[in-house]
Structures are given as structure tokens and as C-alpha cells.
Protein: Iron-binding zinc finger CDGSH type domain-containing protein
Organism: Heterostelium pallidum
Amino acid sequence: MNQIKDYFSNWFGSEEAEITGEIPSPQWEISGENFSLDGPIPVDASSEDKYICRCGQSKNYPYCDNSHLSYNQNNGTNIGPLKINQEKDRVVYVCRCGHSKERPFCGMNKNDHENVIDYVFVVMVFTTFAIFGAKAYETH
Ligand code: FES
């Protein structure tokens, strides 16, 4: 009976589900599919329970599409979605810039998002200069 319970617990996850293993970070990098600086994604749980991806592998982010099952199998982790219980007028805001300390929720205000945008801009400018500098150096 416990096996069945564990199977469904891994499948659906819950707010109480224990997470073991590191939550992967590459999907939050600039090249990652889920990365965006457009601000958090509102998730409306006012009419039904919602399952928010915490493994970052979902192709239907921010919703769990069960990609965590193969991720867990390949990485020895136990990461499942976070269940947002249905409640009248309940809307939660899910992070997609990857910098929130309260992931999967957005933990930032507008200024914080702008700081992230500034940071990305500086990194891109620096990278561009580094590439052109290296090319110029090669030609000497
Ligand atoms: S928790 Fe990420 S796909 Fe399920």
C-alpha cells in the first residue's frame, strides 16, 4: 500500500512532499527554455488546484507536465510539483527569471527585476567586448 502511496505522491507531489537532491539550475540560465525577464507568471487557483513545476524541466512551465519523473530517475532526485490548493480569489505569482529566493514563487519587486535586466545587459556587453577583443588579439 505504501508503494502505491509513494508512487502517487511522486506523481502529483504536494506541499509536504520532501525534496531530495539539488533543484537543477541550468534551465534558469539565459539560454534556458523557462527563462524570461517579463516578470512573474500569474497562476489562478481560484477554480481548481494547480500543480507548479519545481524541477524546471516542464515544457508547459509553470505547470508540471510530469517531466520530473524522468529527471528524478536520471538524477537520483525526488523533486515534484508544488500543489496550490484551490481557494476563492487565489492567484500566485511564479518566478521565471530564476533569481527568486522563494522559488517557485516570485520574491521580487519591480526594481529587483530591473536590476536583473541591468545585470544581464552588463554581462552581454562584457561578453561581446571579450569576443571582439579575443578576435582582435588573434589577428595580431
Ligand atoms: S515538477 Fe517539473 S515537470 Fe513536474
